[in-house]
Write a structure and sequence with these properties.
Elements (H helix, E strand, L loop, with lengths): L1 E7 L1 E3 L5 E9 L1 E12 L6 E7 L3 E3 L7 E6 L4 E6 L8 E11 L4 E5 L3 E5 L2
Length: 119
């Protein structure tokens, strides 16, 4: 089995900062990409930031404010969120595209963590 466990999130005032983390564990053979997505009420899920072995990418709406990074041999994913806006309010999900020691390959998701930006 593979698990993605997220932590962080919470309530913050506009202009504040929050940090999210996600650790992948279990029968993992190789992690190809990891990413953060978010889902706001009434909106479609959107890619916030992604990380592969060669590059990172960001949604236009978060460029310059959010930073994605990986550690722990690539199994832990972080999202540093600065200058937060009310529009950043959403449930944030960690995603990993990986292969398992069973020989399978696919997308795995964390349970989601709520980020609320409000005064």
């Amino acid at each position: 089995q593979v698990q993605l466990v997220e932590s962080g999130g919470g309530l913050v005032q506009p202009g504040g900062s929050l940090s999210l983390s996600c650790t992948a564990s279990g029968r993992i053979s190789n992690i190809y990409t990891m990413a953060w997505y978010r889902k706001a009420p009434g909106k479609q899920r959107e890619l916030v930031a992604g990380s592969s072995s060669s590059n990172t990418n960001y949604a236009d709406s978060v460029k310059g404010r959010f930073t994605i990074s990986r550690a722990n041999g690539g199994n832990t994913l972080y999202l540093q969120m600065n200058s937060l806006k009310p529009d950043d309010t959403a449930v944030y999900y960690c995603n990993a595209f990986l292969s398992t020691t069973y020989g399978s390959r696919g997308n795995y998701w964390g349970q989601g963590t709520q980020v609320t930006v409000s005064s």
